[in-house]
Design a protein that fits this description.
Strand content: 15-25%
Shape: elongated
Number of helices: 18
Largest sheet: 6 strands, mixed
Helix content: 25-40%
Oligomer: single chain
């Protein structure tokens, strides 16, 4: 049955006044009170529903601050479900999602009133559920190691302690980092016994393809979460980080991508597919003329009494030479591009004769590197993605022709950004495990999907 006015009022009251565009979300969703879900879940379909278990709310989310954390957790499942970093179909993958989301919302709301939702629900004396909450006394800075981790034997204790520290300290941790470490620490059965928050079933928010299953919900929730206050030291993830990191990429060259990129680069350069423009130039050129010249051969023949009919000479003639117009390349180095970054580095190097000697790496900032640094595998990234930094870089450097290499998850451009990009001849090369063309589709002069 539809949720009562009392429960709906509680959901409204848990959010700060006028924040997070909650009215738009509630207009889109039906809020349903049901015991068919253990906590809360978003049912992702053409008409999405927010399912809330009233018994769970009364027992574990009885205050506005706790209820806010429950809703925030579920909304992050909706946002992050589209990343397909993990299909979220196994207990380990579900556990990874909750570990990182709980750490993220804890950083966003580090007050004790909000943290009480996680610290009361999960015990720091039980392993592995202590990974789903901050340690006692944590307030947004360095965290103590939970007692359950201290009780582990070595080397598990050191590894688990480092993982928890990464989640709740200034360092931060990515989904991949947690996923790489966690299966080595605990058995699947131990993880499966831990109660998780939010919806993890098939068709739920944690499953990929949200933009196709419920496009309206995807657009609204992405806009809401992008407007949320970010913590001072956010955890890395798509569009959720601003911590600049320097890494090294192993360069792998693939001719298939090289050929595709080169064709696209040349089409951006002049629209004719040649990748070259003809420029007028002047220069000496040998000719044969009936007009007497002071060439050596003509003088000798004249002295011998055999005046030549034609004389060798030199003339300046306008001619046209072929000259390259290097294209500026903006390469997406956000976390979602990790799997294809090596091949893209190699493909750009294969096209180095056609590209500008400075390559622009972008995430939520633009970092310029030379082709030599690209060859060395240098990568500077914040982990997130935002097309605004690309537009600002183009304005500052007066870029008129550019190639964007990305999976397309760059954030919806603002009106100002769209106006900037519309003035640039842009080609887009889509690459990656999960590609979407909605953000840049109508701004590209030409686009391609790079072969795997």
């Amino acid at each position: 049955m539809t949720v009562s006015d009392t429960m709906q009022d509680r959901l409204l009251d848990c959010f700060p006044s006028g924040s997070y565009a909650l009215a738009a979300l509630l207009r889109l969703m039906d809020i349903v009170s049901t015991t068919t879900v253990p906590t809360a879940a978003v049912e992702c379909r053409s008409q999405p529903r927010l399912l809330v278990n009233p018994d769970f709310v009364d027992k574990h989310a009885e205050t506005p601050e706790k209820l806010l954390m429950l809703v925030m957790h579920e909304l992050h499942h909706v946002l992050l479900g589209h990343t397909t970093l993990f299909p979220a179909l196994t207990p380990v993958q579900n556990f990874v999602f909750d570990c990182v989301i709980n750490a993220l919302i804890s950083r966003m709301f580090p007050n004790p009133e909000h943290l009480a939702f996680l610290t009361d629900y999960y015990s720091e004396a039980e392993y592995p559920e202590c990974l789903l909450r901050p340690a006692s006394g944590w307030c947004g800075g360095c965290a103590a190691v939970p007692p359950a981790i201290e009780a582990l034997p070595e080397p598990e204790r050191a590894t688990a302690g480092a993982l928890h520290h990464a989640l709740y300290s200034d360092a931060g941790a990515t989904y991949k980092e947690v996923f790489d470490v966690l299966p080595r620490l605990v058995e699947g059965g131990a993880i499966a016994s831990v109660p998780l928050l939010g919806g993890h079933g098939p068709g739920g928010a944690a499953e990929g393809g949200l933009d196709k299953r419920s496009p309206l919900l995807f657009d609204v929730v992405r806009g809401i979460v992008e407007a949320w206050p970010q913590p001072p030291d956010p955890i890395q993830g798509r569009s959720l980080a601003d911590l600049i990191l320097s890494t090294t990429t192993v360069v792998r060259q693939q001719p298939s991508k090289r050929r595709q990129l080169r064709r696209l680069i040349r089409s951006i350069a002049d629209g004719g597919g040649s990748g070259r423009v003809r420029l007028p130039t002047e220069g000496p050129e040998p000719i044969v003329t009936p007009i007497p010249q002071h060439g050596r051969r003509s003088v000798v023949l004249q002295a011998l009494g055999y005046p030549p009919l034609l004389h060798e000479g030199v003339a300046s003639r306008h001619r046209r030479r072929r000259s390259a117009r290097p294209i500026h390349v903006y390469l997406d180095v956000s976390g979602s591009m990790d799997g294809v970054r090596s091949a893209l580095y190699g493909a750009i190097l294969d096209c180095r004769a056609d590209v500008h000697p400075i390559v622009h790496l972008f995430s939520t900032r633009v970092s310029d590197i030379s082709l030599a640094e690209l060859r060395a595998g240098i990568c500077r990234t914040t982990g997130g993605t935002n097309i605004t930094c690309v537009a600002e870089h183009m304005v500052h450097h007066r870029i008129r022709r550019a190639l964007l290499v990305t999976d397309g998850w760059v954030g919806a451009p603002t009106t100002t950004v769209r106006q900037t990009l519309a003035r640039v001849r842009i080609g887009v090369a889509y690459a990656g495990a999960s590609i979407q063309t909605g953000d840049l589709g109508d701004l590209a002069f030409r686009s391609i999907h790079l072969a795997a």
